[in-house]
Structures are given as C-alpha cells and as structure tokens.
From TrEMBL, chain A:
The keyword Hydrolase applies. It holds the Pfam family SAF. GO terms for molecular function: hydrolase activity; lyase activity. Residues 17-88 form the SAF domain. Transmembrane segments: none annotated. This is Hydrolase. Keywords: Hydrolase, Lyase.
UniProtKB/TrEMBL annotation, chain B:
Keywords: Hydrolase, Lyase. Residues 137-383 form the D-galactarate/Altronate dehydratase C-terminal domain. GO terms for molecular function: hydrolase activity; lyase activity. Pfam families: GD_AH_C (PF20629), GD_AH_second (PF04295). GO terms for biological process: D-galacturonate catabolic process. Residues 3-127 form the D-galactarate/Altronate dehydratase second domain. InterPro entries: GD_AH_C, GD_AH_second, UxaA_altronate/galactarate_dh. This is Hydrolase. Belongs to the UxaA family. It comes from Ferrovibrio terrae. The keyword Hydrolase applies.
Length: 102, 397
C-alpha cells in the first residue's frame, strides 16, 4: 500500500490518500522522496504530522486513511506541510440530523 | 479457552467474588474486606451515590451477574437509597451466592469487615473448586476503548484493534466500540456500514445526540495537545478513534447494560438521553470500561499512545500501545507493542492477529499486564437513559 517512491520515513496510510504521515521527526532541510519527486523540507516535521503527496488545490479535500479529514484552505504544493494553517474541518454540526435517538 | 458456565448460558473467563458497596459510605469497609484477597479474585465495585438512579441500578445488576463473577457480597451502610433488596434478588435469581451486609446492623466498621472477610474467604474456596468447560470465540464479548491518545493511536493501535475486531466478528464473537463523542464527523460513513438503513439513521442520531450534548457542556473534543501531535481537524481525530471498529458491518446499537443478542459489531451509545444532567457523560476512561463490562464484555482492548496504566475490576484489560517511544518507557504496563508498525517492523495485520491471539490466551487464563500489576479501577456515576428503539437491534434474516 505504501508508495514505493516515497521515503520510508513517511507512512502512506491508504491508496488514494493525498497526504502521508511522518513516522518520526524529520529535520528541516532534509531531502525526501515524496511520491516520486524529491522535496526539501521547508520546516521540521513532527512525528505524526502530514505532508502533501501531490499538488492540492484550495478547497480540495484532504484524504487520510481513505477518508476526508477536511479541506485545503489554500493551495498546497507537492511536498508541502499540511496542518491547521492550510487545512480546516468540513464538519458542520448544524448539518447533522437533530432528532434525538428514541 | 475455558470458562465457567452461568445459569443464563453465558460463560465467564474469570471466577471472581465481587464486593459491591451500595453508597460511598460503605466504600472503605468494602475495600478493607477485599484487600487481603485482592490477588485471589476479590474485586471491589460499587455506586457512590445516596439517591436512587435507574441507570446505576441496572449497571449494578448487570455487573453483579457478569459472567466473570461467581459470587457477590453487597455492602450497605443501611440508610442509603439504593434498591439493595432488588439487587440482592437479581443476583440470587442468577444462581450466584450472595450476602448482604448492612454496616449499621452489623456492629460498625470492624465487625462488618470481619464478617465480610469470612464470607469472601469461604466463597473463594468454593469458586476455586468449580469446574470449567471449553469455551469458543463465538461465546466472547469484547469491548474496545482508547485513552491517553496521541497521533500514533489512530495510525497503529486503533486500526490494529480494528483488525482484531474483524477477526472476532468473523468467528461470531460480539465486539463493542463506543465513544460516540469521538465519532463526530464519521456518522455518514458509519451509517453506510449499518445492516439496515433504519439502523443507519439511528447511528446518525446517536452521534448527533453526542455532538449536541458535548456542545452544551463545552467539552474540549479537540485539545491543543492533539494539534501538537499532528492532528488538524475533528474528523481526523475521530477517524483515528473510529478505526477501532474495524471494517465489519454494524449489527446494532446498545446502551450501557444491554447485552448483544448475538455475534457481530455493536456501537455502545454512552451519551445520556434527554437534557444534559449529572455532568460529563463519562468522567474518565474507567467509566466507559465499566459500561462495556456491564454489556457483558469479557475482555477490554485499550489503545493508548501517551501511556495509560489502568486496568479494571471484573474484566481483564489488554493494553495496546500505539507509540513506540511510550512502549520503550512503559513496556511493563503494555501487552502489545503496536508501535512496531511505525518503526516498519510489523504491519497492521500482524499486530491485529497478535491481539486476537492474545484475547484467546487471556480467555485461557493468562493474566494481562494490568491484572498482574493489581489494577482494579472502577467508577460509576449518575446517568439517565431511555431504552433503545426497535431499529437499534435489527433481526438477522
């Protein structure tokens, strides 16, 4: 399931995901193979933090484990760091049914 | 595996004496009674409130007749509001030995402790002589919970426990997941897994109820520590918790004290019905564990990233550690090192299979780490529930 062209320090959780997760801390300036392209980290990646596996357009859904975890609030380049500065929740509590369980 | 058969046909993987206090005022005496026998199978449970509560009564009835329990000592102060006669009757009707001691009628602390110890000691001797029977995986009920989570929980331990859940359901065991407040954003996905559309609607309503409840309480469902750990959104956090449920179809929704009618995957709805009362639904992980046990869980799978140490009264807790660094620091408390998935030395299926095999070993009598360390945490507080609706447990064609 992991993309063979992605550095083993990154974990691709499911096919079709557009982000990978760092298995361990990776220092700023590290050169990494990310889905077939070499990327130099512009900032340190904490353990469990996310990196874009391809160019992601503003408004596009971020998919982890095959499930959407929110949408990009701005364009994210291939290899870009993905966190609260460019990813926001799509979850709107007002859209869920409000009837109580019987 | 082997188990002790009870009169309702269920089998227990342990044969404990429960020492149950019926109000906080009887807690100390209960602890003192059980203490010398804590390694021989005496476990303290109880309800601290003085005012009667239907939920607490049902919980105590289910816990005192749990398959892992062979005999029950009820310890009352004497003037509390708990319906002790009904609880005593329920236990007696289940065929278990039961003794009710009221401290006020038995000469106070010292005399009650002595009487209680004499009774517990005699029961433990009886229970030790009871024969066991072979037990099949299909007779198991297994609950799951996560606590002390970090970014690794959703990457390693939770999905690995999900695999173990899939293996259990395949072999017709009942598997229960919960924490509806941590499934917010996942309800659409869950509904698609329901065995009927009506159950799907109930699943959505269940999460909506949790969202509303937590909104009223201002519950911090997404904490700054989550973001430090690399989680960005509530969906992302929920997805990690949701992964514990595995990939099997969802067979039903139950509430605390409801026992799954057959094998399959069940959601335990832990959020009270009606207006927000009595505070937080579950004030700590052990409150949820107690509810899973009241639903008949023989074993609890507990995923932790930061490193929880708890066990539980009445049912063994299997600790699955998600984070390899936490495992290195706290290996003595952990049963499974799911952090190997992050280190690249094991995959999800391998760890899932390891958890499944460990459940069977624990069912054959092997002690979990928390059991060996003497952890017997228990907590029960006030709640109120309506019974589940007819769509929650669809008949199987």
């Amino acid at each position: 399931m992991a993309n063979s062209e992605t550095d083993p320090r990154l974990l691709v959780l499911a096919p079709g995901d557009n982000i990978a997760v760092a298995r361990l801390e990776i220092a700023v300036g590290t050169a990494l193979q990310v889905a077939g392209r070499s990327v130099t980290l512009q900032r340190a990646m904490g353990f469990g933090h996310k990196i874009a596996l391809r160019d992601i357009a503003a408004g596009e859904r971020i998919v982890k484990y095959g499930a959407p975890i929110g949408s990009a609030t701005q364009a994210i380049p291939h290899g870009g760091y993905v966190h609260s500065h460019n990813l926001a929740s799509d979850y709107m509590p007002s859209t869920v049914p409000v009837e109580a369980a019987p | 595996m082997r188990g002790w058969r009870r009169s309702d046909g269920r089998k227990g993987i342990r044969n404990y004496v429960a020492v149950a206090y019926l109000v906080e005022c009887a807690h100390h005496v209960s602890k003192e009674i059980a203490w010398p026998y804590r390694e021989q199978g005496a476990h303290v449970i109880g309800f601290p409130g003085c005012y009667p509560n239907a939920y607490a009564l049902k919980m105590m009835q289910r816990l005192c007749t749990h398959p892992n329990v062979g005999a029950v000592l009820l310890v009352s102060l004497g003037c509390e509001g708990f319906n002790k006669k009904l609880l005593e009757r329920t236990i007696k009707d289940s065929g278990r030995p039961v003794q009710l001691l009221a401290i006020q009628e038995n000469g106070g602390t010292r005399a009650t402790i002595q009487k209680g110890r004499d009774w517990v000691e005699a029961q433990l001797k009886e229970l030790a002589a009871q024969p066991t029977e072979p037990m099949d995986v299909s007779e198991l009920v297994v609950g799951t919970i996560c606590g002390g989570s970090d970014a690794t929980s959703g990457l390693t331990a939770n999905p690995a426990m999900g695999r173990a859940f899939d293996f259990l359901v395949e072999q017709k065991a009942a598997a229960i997941f919960e924490e509806t407040g941590e499934l917010i954003g996942m309800e659409g996905w869950m509904a698609e897994r329901a065995i009927t559309p009506e159950l799907g609607d109930e699943l959505k309503a269940c999460v909506a109820k949790a969202a509303r409840y937590y909104e009223t309480l201002g519950y911090p469902s997404f904490a700054p520590g989550n973001a430090d750990g690399g989680l960005t959104t509530i969906e992302e956090k929920s997805l990690g918790a949701y992964a514990k449920s595995g990939a099997s179809p969802i067979s039903g929704i139950i509430k605390p004290g409801d026992i799954p009618p057959r094998g399959g995957l069940y959601l335990l709805d832990v959020v009270p019905d009606g207006e927000v009362r009595f505070g937080f639904p579950n004030i700590s992980d052990n409150a949820e564990i107690a509810e899973l046990i009241a639903c008949g869980s023989h074993v609890i799978l507990f995923s932790t990233g930061r490193g929880s140490v708890v066990g539980s009264a009445l049912a063994p807790v299997i600790k699955v550690c998600a984070n390899p660094r936490t495992y290195a620091r706290m290996a003595d408390d952990m049963d499974v090192n799911a952090g190997r998935i992050l280190e690249g030395t094991a995959d999800l299926d391998t760890v899932g299979r390891e958890i499944f095999d460990l459940i069977k070993q624990v069912g054959a009598g092997e002690m979990t780490r928390s059991e060996g360390l003497g952890h017997q945490e228990f907590i029960l507080t006030y709640k109120s529930f309506e019974p589940i609706g007819p769509a929650c447990l669809p008949a199987v064609a």
